[in-house]
Design brief:
Elements: E1 2-7, H1 12-25, E2 32-37, H2 46-51, H3 71-90, E3 94-98, E4 101-103, H4 109-116, E5 121-123, E6 127-128, E7 136-138, E8 141-142, E9 147-148, E10 152-155, H5 157-163, H6 166-169, H7 175-183, H8 189-194, E11 203-206, E12 211-213, E13 245-250, H9 258-266, E14 271-274, H10 292-302, E15 310-314, E16 319-321, H11 325-333, E17 339-344, E18 366-375, H12 376-382, H13 393-402, E19 408-411, E20 417-419, E21 427-429, E22 435-437, E23 446-448, H14 453-467, E24 484-487, E25 490-494, H15 498-514, E26 530-532, H16 533-536, H17 538-559, E27 568-576, E28 584-587, E29 593-598, E30 604-605, E31 608-610, E32 615-616, E33 624-629, E34 636-638, E35 641-643, E36 646-653
Helix pairs in contact: 3-5, 14-17
């Protein structure tokens, strides 16, 4: 009798171990072993599969975990299929093993041959699923109920001919599921209906098993996804993408969608913008409910898509993409749900629904409609009910989710989507330019800057950190972390080049001409002609902030131990000349540590003067940063300017966390 073992060429050790077990067990018996070079599913793309003449049953989902097929399962299915064709070619029964099988003492080869002379198919090993009664037809044989583990079986040409058909070639599913369908014992109704024209196989199963997977087989599986079940924890494979994915957003003002479109371009993701240059009729969503127009615009597009297409929708003005579309889709498939929504810590817009949501470990309990992904078919069902343009899209989706009528999951662990609001302090960008949530310890692939001003600042900073290499910035810093005293409790650090200082002055003047110019803050007790760095260029602000955090704050904390710095409170350029503001009276700053960078020196007068310390900044180089404790001991003033215009960069730092 001929036996075949399915083995990937890369798994040499597994084959050697199997062959030793086989040769030892079947020594001196009339059986030969041939290695079948398995199809490596990881190397098979959907395009390649179709070129091979095959296709998948694209709507198939594994019935217990609701997941799509894996690359490994596609390779496994093709390997078994080609051995069925081999059986037909040989025109004799054969035994088929996977390479992780071990043999039990009750394996009687002559009995197996006898059974195959009377039956078309026999399980040599299986895992019975459920408690169904099974008809016993011999002491060691039953008519099998629904079973998995198609890792060892005997098959006849009659069974192989039934299994090998055009319907299956164009609708591949894992053979563990296909065999029960053709045996007539699968519980999956839609699959039974789909394959109903295939003649049924007359099959039996040995009881107890004659062989089984070795201990730890699933931990080294090339077909299973890590974490699919408690017993399936191997590194395994990836999901097989046998569908098309489309990305949509709504943006009536394309200028405001630049961060999304730039991040999409960086990751080579095509985003279709809906509503471009149209009037916004979705209400005032900044200050209250609204956004129904987003649903209505998307709904028009949905009906152009096949039900198995996958749709990713993201808001236009406060979302960035930080991974490839393939990795985004792989993460989506890991949820084993047809639709996945972002989750957040705020129950908006109807707080009365708060108790209806399940409380989770990290508090990301509530559906956020700014980011979601799902099959077009399921989204069509969810969006069937009408909504007015001015009604709230988030409330609409929350009600759909809470109805439990749809296959929706919330990303409560931030595996795919990260909402910023109330998570500002646990979100960071690591050295690999990945967004990291230190609370969930996950690396979300899409960032949604929902929330107030603090949330928007965090979102903008993350965007700068992720994409600064592509922003064409010419921010030249010379920070080295070295600090020295140049006066009583007045410190100096190298900070910026003279060229950068000059560029900042030009940028400030250009911005002032386009806007309201240099001006004092309303209600300031010591008004100055100032312009905020945030108003000049947010990326410049973040560049300065990064260098402060990397070099300046650590040096200060070491010098003034146990000082702890809390970040920037204010950052602005102040300008002095005889026409606008000549000087600034003696004052203290509302700041933990203050700093000043001389941006130019082509003026006379206007020294920064500390009378208690008898210190002038006249000899400080352009671009150097001086620092001092601000609130009590170091009052200071800017002396009158005599000729020219003086520009200084002024830094105030937060006195405590949350200071503003």
């Amino acid at each position: 009798m001929k036996a075949f073992v399915i083995n990937l060429s890369k798994n040499v050790v597994k084959f050697d171990k199997f062959k030793k077990r086989f040769d030892s067990f079947f020594r001196d018996q009339e059986i030969t072993l041939e290695r079948f070079d398995a199809f490596n599913g990881q190397l098979i793309t959907y395009e390649k599969l179709r070129k091979m003449g095959y296709d998948t049953y694209s709507s198939w989902r594994e019935p217990f975990y609701n997941r799509k097929q894996t690359h490994g399962e596609i390779g496994c299915s093709l390997s078994h299929l080609h051995l069925w064709l081999k059986c037909i070619q040989l025109n004799e029964p054969i035994l088929i093993f996977e390479d992780d099988v071990e043999f039990y003492s009750n394996f009687n080869l002559e009995r197996v041959k006898e059974v195959l002379s009377k039956h078309e198919y026999v399980y040599l090993s299986r895992k019975k699923i459920g408690n169904a009664e099974e008809e016993k037809i011999a002491d060691d044989l039953v008519v099998p109920s629904f079973s998995y583990w198609n890792c060892a079986y005997g098959i006849t040409p009659a069974a192989a001919k039934k299994l090998c058909n055009k319907l299956y070639y164009k609708n591949l599913i894992i053979n563990d599921e296909y065999i029960p369908i053709v045996l007539g014992n699968s519980p999956v109704k839609h699959a039974n209906d789909f394959f109903k024209e295939i003649p049924k196989i007359k099959g039996v199963a040995f009881t107890p098993n004659l062989c089984a997977p070795v201990d730890g087989a699933f931990a080294e599986s090339d077909t299973e996804i890590s974490g699919v079940a408690a017993c399936y924890t191997g590194a395994g494979t990836s999901y097989f993408i046998d569908f098309d994915t489309y990305v949509y957003t709504v943006a009536t003002d394309l200028e405001k969608a630049k961060q999304l479109t730039a991040s999409a371009k960086h990751n080579r993701i095509k985003v279709k913008v809906l509503g471009a240059k149209e009037d916004w009729t979705g209400g005032d969503i900044k200050n209250g409910p609204g956004g129904g127009i987003k649903i209505n615009l998307l709904k028009k597009e949905l009906y152009k898509h096949k039900d198995d297409d996958v749709i990713l929708f993201v808001d236009g003005y406060d979302v960035l993409l930080n991974d490839s579309l393939d990795n985004i889709v792989q993460t989506y498939l890991s949820f084993h749900s047809r639709v996945v929504f972002a989750a957040e810590k705020n129950c908006w817009p109807n707080k009365e629904l708060q108790s209806s949501f399940v409380q989770t470990a990290y508090g990301n309990d509530y559906l956020n409609s700014g980011c979601y992904i799902g099959t077009a078919g399921e989204l069509k069902k969810i969006l069937a009910e009408e909504i007015q343009n001015s009604e709230d899209d988030q409330l609409y989706f929350q009600q759909k989710y809470l109805s439990s009528q749809f296959d929706i999951t919330l990303d409560v662990h931030t595996k795919l989507f990260q909402c910023v609001a109330r998570d500002e302090d646990v979100i960071s960008v690591n050295d690999d330019l990945k967004i990291h949530n230190s609370e969930t310890n996950n690396f979300p692939k899409i960032l949604h800057g929902n929330g107030g001003e603090y949330s928007k600042e965090k979102f903008d900073h993350c965007y700068y950190q992720l994409f600064r290499a592509e922003l064409n910035l010419v921010h030249r810093f010379v920070c080295d972390g070295m600090i020295k005293a140049v006066g009583p409790e007045i410190l100096l650090m190298k900070f910026m080049t003279k060229e950068m200082c000059s560029d900042m002055i030009q940028l400030a003047e250009m911005t002032a001409k386009r806007g309201d110019g240099f001006r004092p803050l309303p209600g300031d007790a010591y008004p100055g002609q100032e312009i905020r760095i945030r108003d000049l260029d947010r990326n410049l602000y973040y560049a300065i902030e990064d260098n402060l955090e990397k070099y300046v704050y650590p040096a200060l904390e070491k010098y003034y131990k146990p000082l702890h710095m809390h970040g920037i409170r204010d950052l602005f350029i102040i300008r002095y000349n005889k026409k606008t503001q000549k000087s600034l009276d003696l004052h203290n700053d509302i700041s933990l540590i203050s700093g000043s960078v001389k941006l130019n020196d082509n003026y006379t007068g206007a020294e920064l003067y500390f009378p208690r310390q008898q210190f002038y900044n006249k000899d400080i180089e352009v671009g150097d940063l001086i620092l001092w404790p601000s609130q009590v001991t170091h009052p200071h003033e800017s002396l009158p300017v005599y000729e020219g215009t003086k520009y200084s960069l002024v830094l105030w730092t937060k006195r405590f966390r949350g200071d503003s």
